[in-house]
Amino acid sequence: MTAAGRPQNHGLSIGAVLAQLRGDFPDVTISKIRFLEAEGLVTPGRTPSGYRQFAAADVERLRFVLAAQRDHYLPLKVIKEQLDAVDSGAEPTAALPRPPRRLVPIDAPAENVGLPVADDFAPGKELRLTREELLAQAGIDAPALAELQQYGLVRPGPAGFFDPDAVLVARTVKAMTEFGIEPRHLRAFRAAADREVGLLEQIVTPVYRHRDPEAKARADEVVRELAALSVTLHTLLVKAGIRGVAGC
């Protein structure tokens, strides 16, 4: 028995696994590992007392999952399909899809913004921009910003600050105005986004009501995954529609 009363065994505890992964994946948490287990991406053994026991193969499996998310921006469903295929004896995928650009510099043109992934929606240290900073970085004037706010395309936080996404939104709208599209024409985008947020809230709110910290962590992961998938779906539907208009 260890000092904590846990039987000594050949497997790794979840804390030991976390320590091994943190060097390459500093954002990983115990809640994240538990979530991946709940999704069937890793299946550690259990001691008679119910403690998780991770084998070396489990750790490598977790490394694959985390790297596929971070480096190749794959949704968990696709990652699980690849792992299931390997488990069944199939050859692993020779080449993973080329990842979209997830981390976009603040001065990147709107057309370079890639499809989002779940990590884009993860909470982090919030960068707050003043109104003047937003105007300078977006390259718009005060009347243009007022119009963006009027139609709900850009919204300051409770303290009156803006986040970096507001810069990209403003730049995107500015680029669209060069084609004769005005902010008032884009109210449908705001309404559609609000409807998608409402749908996600309906799905995860019951989970958030649980007091179990693991349930909340799981809900956080689910809402980020769904948010990324919903934006990807919207993008693909627009692309398909445009191809139809162009007769392609």
From TrEMBL:
<dbReference type="InterPro" id="IPR047057">
    <property type="entry name" value="MerR_fam"/>
</dbReference>
<dbReference type="Pfam" id="PF13411">
    <property type="entry name" value="MerR_1"/>
</dbReference>
<keyword id="KW-0238">DNA-binding</keyword>
<dbReference type="InterPro" id="IPR000551">
    <property type="entry name" value="MerR-type_HTH_dom"/>
</dbReference>
<feature type="domain" description="HTH merR-type">
    <location>
        <begin position="27"/>
        <end position="85"/>
    </location>
</feature>
<dbReference type="InterPro" id="IPR009061">
    <property type="entry name" value="DNA-bd_dom_put_sf"/>
</dbReference>
<protein>
    <submittedName>
        <fullName>MerR family transcriptional regulator</fullName>
    </submittedName>
</protein>
